[in-house]
Write a structure and sequence with these properties.
Layout (H helix, E strand, L loop, with lengths): L1 H19 L6 E6 L6 E6 L3 E4 L2 E7 L3 E5 L5 E9 L2 E12 L10 E4 L5 E4 L4 E4 L3 E8 L4 E6 L6 E8 L2 E13 L2
Antiparallel strand pairs: 1-2, 1-14, 2-3, 3-4, 4-5, 5-6, 6-7, 7-8, 7-14, 8-9, 9-10, 10-11, 11-12, 12-13, 13-14
Amino acid sequence: MKKFRGYIVSTILISSVLLLGGCGSKSEKWAYAYEPTEEVIELSDNGKAQYKGDKYTYTQDDNFIELKDKSGNVTKLRYTMENENMVLYEKSTYTYSEGQPTDGIIGLWTQDNGWSYEFTEDGKFSEENIFFGHYSVDEEKKCIRLMYDDPIEDAYLYYTLDGNKLTVDYPWPMVKLES
């Protein structure tokens, strides 16, 4: 009987410790640096994620966060980490404004919302017709480097071209939210 009572007491103690000791998963919550109180992405160590209000399961390696929704659709987000800072790359697709592009990214690329990029043959660019500078293209890495005329840090856009569509992974500096 003593052994049985000891077993019950031990079971109760272990269960209490597990319940009170934080069996719950830990998570990291991130916001855009320009909007540091609004959560954009949450990654839990149990493989669950939330991104812009939608729920996913996820996997992560050194370059990508792969989000999978309930229907099995996958979204790959490129990211980089430098110390405790994350840069999250989000995809945007632009349409060539003059039919089919003839020379890589050169030309005017627009979205329905009015956002645009224009790349000239002499290495200049315009972003939204507000920001200007010079650019270079690394064909091997499929990366465009934007070097702004204004005192703005250079931006590196990863891109793909598909006919008259230019898809860029645009870098957004993130800040970690306190849990």
